[in-house]
Amino acid sequence: MPLRVPPLVFCGILASASAAALPLAAQEPERPDSSDLRGDARSAQSAFERLRVRRLPRELMGSGGCDEVIGRICMRHDGDDDFVPPPEDEDITEGRERLLAELADIGRAIPGDDWVLGQRVWYAIEAGRPEEAIELPQPCAATPWWCAALEGLALHAAERFEDAERAFGRALQAMPEETRAAWDDATQAVLGRERLGWLEEQPDRDAALERFWRLADPSWMVPGNDRRTAHWARLTASGIRDRARNAYGLSWGFDLEELLIRYGWEISWGRDVWRAGQMEDRVVGHHPPRSREYAPPEPVLADPAATAPDDWALEGKRPHTAYAPTYAPEFGAMLPQHAAFRREEGVLLIVAPDSADVPGERGLVLLDLEGERTVASPDTGRVQQARVPWGRWMISAEWIQPDSGRARRARFGAEWTPVAPDVPTLSDLLLVTGGRTLPVTLEDAVARAHPGRVLRSGQRLALAWELYRFGGRAEEVAYRVLLEPTDTGLFRRAGEWMGVLDPERPVVLAWSEVDEPAPEPHFRSVDLTLPELEAGAYRLSLEVQLPGRAPLVAVQRVRVLEEGEGRSATDAPPRSRR
After folding, report:
1. What is the DSSP letter of 184?
2. Beta strand 58-59 with 268-272: parallel, antiparallel or unpaired?
3. In this structure, are strands 536-545 and 552-561 parallel, antiparallel, or unpaired?
4. Which residues touch 394 (CB under 8 Å, ≥6 apart)?
5. pLDDT at residue 29 tops 50
6. Which of 138, 372, 401, 536 has its CA 20 to 30 A from that of 124?
7. What is the 3-state secondary structure of 285-344?
8. Cis-peptide into 32, omega within 30 deg
9. CB of 81 within 8 A of CB of 9?
10. Does pLDDT of 9 surpass 60?
């Protein structure tokens, strides 16, 4: 089952509002009659939004409480993951086209008017024509930074994220200092309390924000950082909606602006079912149903290299901020296995994705947490490999199926440092698909790497690893393999503590052998058949005991499925309903 966030529903509550925090710079009239033309544009835009509301479909909004109240807005996370916007009413579609035509005529008469240009770009995007919107600010007759921001908004809508980053970069350089400070302050709405506390502790605020946005990028395989361009696009949309009528019928204020910055713009609208005594329509705005919290949690920001594969989930019933990539609105968790093997210059990283045979694009991308550089490994088949220098890294294993709009990822950290040759060390564990013979080399084990770390009770497999012991003499080495549950329930833990239930003992496979020193890593493998186990999360570990030394330990966290449960997160999952 994929990780998910319930869709977002915003309900407008009529009240007064303060001015927006991100005002659009006012323009001097370019012609004596420009104020009249601007007034005509505002009247046409307002008339279209009133038409929109009159033609919205009726829907039962319910009478439950709000998950969060921000100013005049009641926000609920009670939508359906399978929500599909109903077809737009023909009158709304035709009304938008009339508005665009009228705005085009006015725009030709006063091409330097920022407000009119912003409306033209916005409604062209809403009409599904972002490429047309890209051309509207070119050449720029309005305020230069505003033209660049509008171009960035349209480029983001067209999924041209690298071009959008460059356009927003030009806008940030050219905008007034006051406006740039307001855009910078708006990041606080995305961070939330915990992440904001982390940011305040950082000695270099700009570097910290750069790390935040790099980690918040949903897919490192997709060129450009679409989560950051989405943030800038939302700030630009806030400037467009300032002093413009909206479907809620509310004046633009801090509450509508904050919701736009945190959750983006609506994908459809509806009206509450009419009730006796109801004076006005209540309007609901629907946001993408599979929006997720891509912003990294505070522990990940504090120490990215210490992030375990299961530490960073995209799920959250009440996310502080959310986003749904248009190229993959159904974004979930991947459960790959990974193992690092030491080499002279760094490590050889092996990643075996779950459901490696499912069609799609795969990639392995590593972010150097010190130097901010990346090491990328494109799709190389069912197992991916990368030679990685020593250092602190954030690793992202990704899978995207563009035709279906589905994507999966696993993002985790690692820190690899060189060790003196005379210090024994142990590689990670590599799960190998069971066969008639054991793998005798690492290359053989990699070719047979088990897809992911999801197993079945009673499954036969092999474990492979390397022991690094380059000096000394031949010694007897003791090995133990243990399998322990990690998600023991509350009642079992309480029963064990009170002595009512016996503690679950780990499965142990133990043996010893004489190990000869050699100039190369010592490759080892062993057969392992899982016993009958309850479904859940387990810690599979290997302990290696050398004479006179502390045990060396390698761990692989696995998940055991129930009978009949799907094999992995990448197999087409059933969609949950609420």
Report:
1. H
2. parallel
3. antiparallel
4. 215, 304, 305, 307, 366, 367, 369, 411, 412, 413
5. no
6. 401
7. EECCCCCECCCCCHHHHHCHHHCCCCCCCCCCCCCCCCECCCCCCEEEECCCEEEEEEEC
8. no
9. no
10. no
